[in-house]
Every structure is written in structure tokens, then in C-alpha cells.
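>> received
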Amino acid sequence: MQTRTLIFVLLGLVAVPPMNALAQWKIRWEYKGAKGEEHWSELDPDWSACNAGKQQSPIDIRQAETAELPALRFEFKSSPLKYLVNNGYTIRVNYHDAPGAGNLMIVGNVRYQLTQFHFHRPSEELIHGKTYDMVVHLMYQTSDGKLAGVAVLLKAGRANATVQQIWEHMPMTESKIKADFSHEEQEVPGVQISPAGLLPDDLGYFTYSGSVTAPPCTEGVVWYVLKAPITISAAQIGAFAALYPHDVRRVQPLNGRVVKQSR
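>> returned
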């Protein structure tokens, strides 16, 4: 099992990812009903992968090949909570990082920059058929547009300090939609957060090739599902559930994909 390597940096040279990592939707979709996931590709031709794709996420991880995989390395910097959004589906924190911001994931020789993180209840990913109380997805992108997601499973237990900072200020209704279909982002003066507080100490992981879990269901996303969960209090789970009691896509077929796991 790998243990966490966290490098807190004040200065570095990293490329800014394209902002298409911060998905916006021109059309309203839902998880169930007439605009539910069975119909996503009918709502927009650009969402065809949602119902025709063969490498979709999330999945139920039941079998995994043990392999020599590179350790996950993270570089995080505590920064002001400037881009907090209720996008009508979840609570999300966006990052519009300039070079030197320092929110990176390094896998082998590939460097990814953090674009956003958001939450689902319960977990979208299953492990041996088990659902966790929640999950946080940290979404990353390289300078040439390659996508990766880190799924951190959350279980009821001790309160999480980083989650609490966000929950104390999260918008209770959907943020205003702007002309470009993005949502207005809320700045919270005086609050500094670091995504480091959303990671377990043990960074052993499962990995597979999948997709983003909401429209347009873009494939080619490398997923890293961390084996070790972190805790979140029952009160924190309840606060999110009051807004979004079930914001999850059902698990998708593997279609021959191989899931690997670190030693």
C-alpha cells in the first residue's frame, strides 16, 4: 500500500487546464424520470456516450488485478474558498488555478491539475457490491486535456474539518445561471481550504478507464478509486442529504475492461 505523499508548495510552474473540465449544461437533466439517465443521449446529441458508450462510470469493483502501479503524489496549497457552487446537482468547489497554484496530482511522469471537486450521496462507486455513505470526486486535467478522477469514499464517523468549512457556507439553493450557462461562484471571505483534508493517509487504489459520471459522459477518464475511506459525521451527511438525498448514476457494465489495484 502506498502512504500519502503531500507536498505543499508556494511556487511552481504548471500549465493551466482548459476550462471545459468545469462542465456546464445548456439542457436540464435529471437522474430519474423523463430526463433521467436512460434518456440523457436523447436530450443532446453531444451526450450520445451516456447511453452508447462502452467505457462508462461509475462501476462496481468486484475483481481487480494486482499490479506494480505508480504511487499517487499530490501537491496541495491552502487557498481562499473563492469558487463555491451549488450547480443544481451537487455542491462543488471549482479551481481556476494559474501557474504556481500548486494543486497537482502526479502519476509517474504525468502531471494533472485540479479543476474541481464535488460530492455524491451515496457513493457512486461500489466495492464488492458495497455502497458507502458518500463520495467526493476530485477531478483533474493535464495541459493537453487528458482527464483523471480521484474517488474518495466517505463513511459515517468523525466529522471532517474540510467538509465542515464548505458546509458552513454552501449555497442552499441552486446558484444563479449566467449567460454562458455556468453558475455564479460564491467567494467566502476569510476562509482558506486545502483539498489535502479530503484524502486518507493510505493512498492504495483501484484504477480503470471510464468516463465522467454526468452528461456528456465523456470517456477516456482515468479513475483512481482510493481503497481507504475517510470519515464524515452523520450530521454532515444529513446536511448534504437535505439538499441532494440521491445524486448518483447507477453502476455501468465493465464491457471487458480490466480493473487494476496497487499492491
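>> The chain has one domain: 6-13+30-162+183-252.
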